[in-house]
Amino acid sequence: MELIRIPRIMQDTAGGHFLHGRSIGLVPTMGALHEGHLSLVRRSKGENDITAVSIFVNPLQFAPSEDLNKYPRDIDGDTEKLRRENVDILFMPDAHLIYPEGFSTHVEAEGISEKLCGAFRPGHFRGVATIVAKLFNIVKPARAYFGQKDFQQAVIIKKMAKDLDMAIDVVICPTIRENDGLAMSSRNLYLNKDERKAATVINKCLTQTTELIKSGIIDIESIRRFMKEKLSEEPLITEIQYASIYSPQTLDELEKAGKGALLAIALKIGKTRLIDNMIVNP
Ligand code: PAF
Fold first, then answer.
1. CB-side exposure of 117: number of CA atoms within 13 Å?
2. Tens of pLDDT, residues 111-141
3. Residue 181 falls within a domain, yes or no?
4. With CB atoms 3.0 to 4.6 Å apart as the test, which of 17, 134, 181, 199 could cross-link to 203 if both were Cys?
5. How far is the CA of 30 from the centre of ligand 1 (A)?
């Protein structure tokens, strides 16, 4: 596995592969890699000649009050995991090379970035879109892989690629779950034992709401009430930010749940913010 730390060298390397007709698959990450990330790596390995993984904890997508400084970091463990998956390139740039002094250009998908998580994390998706656009320009992938767990992020990146004519296939891969249903996330590491157990309520709520919808209860009021009641059973939840049914395209709340509708939840357990979602009858 080739370790590249300098954007210009990554660009030249990508250019070389392009000239030889080799496709690159990119898996952008912030490290603390888990099976969810590795599932993206495996998908990329199956679909591209070269697989590149980026690890960069992007300061631009964290608000000053958020967890940038305590975000989990495990460079040795991550490198070992990627080596075992036979990843071709690990791109791990320093922040000052990504955002040199004077950096002032940003990418923002307006409207959609303010909904759901965007309402609680102002500026977050602007930071995500900006770093992903930069990574696309540096790594020049044919395809880039993102998890469905971060549904809004995936929708925004797809929209950015379309709106800005980036010739990149944005591939959304299924959420990988622990045995008890909790969606894998680097932030699960923040949870203590009791909180970790409490977090299973999220998947249970999504699954049971899907069943409710399948049984014919599809109006927004009933769905919202059911989700709230289910989540309220867990005393370690300190805040429910949203829990409802949305259009997977616009992310607006739906009046009635139908096939393909997005069930999504964001909440805090203790101080840890967790998100998850499910598509009804995909
Ligand atoms: O999903 C993530 O880990 C990050 O938001 C991403 C896409 C790597 C951008 O920093």
1. 26
2. 999 999 999 999 999 999 999 999 999 999 9
3. no
4. 181
5. 6
CA of 28 to the centre of ligand 1 (A): 6
Best of 54, 130, 134, 150 to mutate for ligand 1, by most ligand atoms within 8 A of CB? Answer: 150
Distances, alpha carbon 163 to alpha carbons 68, 88, 134, 167, 172, in Å: 29, 30, 15, 11, 18
Structural domain count, the chain: 2
Q: Which two tokens stand for residue 192?
A: 């203590």
CA 37 to ligand 1 centroid distance, Å: 11
Q: Which helix (H) or strand (E) holds 226?
A: helix 220-232
Q: Is the CB of 132 under 6 A from ligand 1?
A: yes
34 tagged catalytic: no
Q: Strand 89-91 and strand 50-55: pairing? A: parallel
Average the pLDDT over 40-56 and give the result: 99
The pLDDT tens digits of the residues spanning 143-174 come to: 999 999 999 999 999 999 999 999 999 999 99
Are residue 22 and residue 114 in the same domain, yes or no?
yes
Q: Within this chain, do residues 89 and 211 fall inside the same structural domain, yes or no?
A: no
> pTM for this structure?
0.98
Average pLDDT, stretch 100-109? Answer: 98
Give the pLDDT confidence of 251-281 residue by residue, as tens digits.
999 999 988 999 999 999 999 999 999 999 8
The CATH code of the domain that includes 264 is 3.30.1300.10
Catalytic option among 17, 34, 37, 124: 37
Predicted pLDDT at 2:
98
Q: Residue 190 to residues 133, 185, 186, 243, 248: CA-CA distances in angstroms?
A: 29, 10, 8, 22, 29
Domain ranges, residue 264: 186-279
